[in-house]
Amino acid sequence: MAVVVAALLPVFLLIVLGFILKRTLMRLETQWHGLERLTYYVLFPVLLIQTLVKADLSKVPVAGVGGALMLSALLMSVLCLALRPLLARGAVDGPAFTSVFQGAIRWQTYVALAVSGSLFGDAGLALASVAMVAIIPLVNVFSVSVLAQYASSEKQSAGSIAMTVVRNPLIWACAIGLLINVTHLPLPKLWHDVADALGRSSLAIGLLVTGAGLHLEGLFRPSLASSVAVFLKLVLMPVIAVALALWFGLSGSNLAIVTACAAVPASSSAYVLARQMGGDAPLLAQIITLQTILAAITMPIAIAIAAMC
């Protein structure tokens, strides 16, 4: 419990700080829009590339860990799409549905890495890196596709959706980082120094941007959309992931890492993506904050249950 709370508390405090800054020191929307673009097009992509470049993929069960998490994300995506007609009857429009979708399948990489490293050291970080390779490209493709399809009032063609996916900098970052890792392409020390510096700043700025778009009234009266997203991500996703991990024959630290990665709250980058593509960003900010608060309770429970399997 202490490890998970220690990993989640700074995340929540940064969101709160962003909320305060938006209403005191940085009140202009243009200031936050600039930070959003910086995070989306520079900081997060550099962080993804650098993390994948450094990841040691040779000492972990790639098929088991990656397969369990990829299939869990795929099944959750299918479930969300199946729920779309029911949510529409509950006054959840297209942009709001994209926030439910992202809230259900996205994952907070930084929390997962922090918890994995605290629990199992370097081995935990290696396992979490495999999870990144498995999940990030997949959920980004799905998220961009769903945003392109439902966030706009006009129906977009398959070609338009494909171009939107191709232009996504996070997907390119995953592809570049994985390619460099597999080919062992040497990078100069200067790259590592600059990338590490940019990567360290990405989490803080992304969470501040999330907090700036927060509407606290929704936290005390959660909407149907936010409640569904919280349940799907913090309860159902870990259950699906643990079941698949057991099916793949995982146990011990491998099973625990899969559980931790599946049980983390949604990523702050989802909020930035929603702002860039016309999703319901305020709703997604509420979902992320609710999940971050509740994950301090649900994550230890999920990991403890997995340990007994």
Distance between the termini: 19 Å
Instruction: Calculate the mean pLDDT score and round it.
Output: 85
Note the beta-strand portion: under 5%
**What gross morphology would you assign?**
globular
- The strand count comes to 0
- The CATH class name reads Mainly Alpha
So, CATH architecture? Up-down Bundle
Might you state the CATH topology name? Na+/H+ antiporter like fold
Structural class: mainly alpha
Rg over C-alpha atoms, rounded to the nearest angstrom:
18 Å
How many domain regions? 1
Task: Please explain how this structure is put together.
By secondary structure, this protein is an all-alpha fold. It has one domain: Na+/H+ antiporter like fold (Up-down Bundle), CATH 1.20.1530. Helix content is 83%, strand content 0%. The protein has helices at 2-23, 29-54, 62-89, 94-105, 109-150, 158-166, 169-183, 189-212, 217-220, 224-247, 252-263, 268-277, 281-307. The longest helix has 42 residues, at 109-150. The model has no long low-confidence stretch (mean pLDDT 85).
Structure described in brief:
With 309 residues, the chain is mainly alpha-helical. The protein is built from 13 helices and no strands.
Give the SSE map.
Layout: H1 2-23, H2 29-54, H3 62-89, H4 94-105, H5 109-150, H6 158-166, H7 169-183, H8 189-212, H9 217-220, H10 224-247, H11 252-263, H12 268-277, H13 281-307
Helix pairs in contact: 1-5, 1-8, 1-13, 2-7, 2-8, 2-12, 3-4, 3-5, 3-10, 3-11, 4-5, 4-10, 4-13, 5-6, 5-7, 5-11, 5-12, 8-12, 10-11, 10-13, 11-13, 12-13
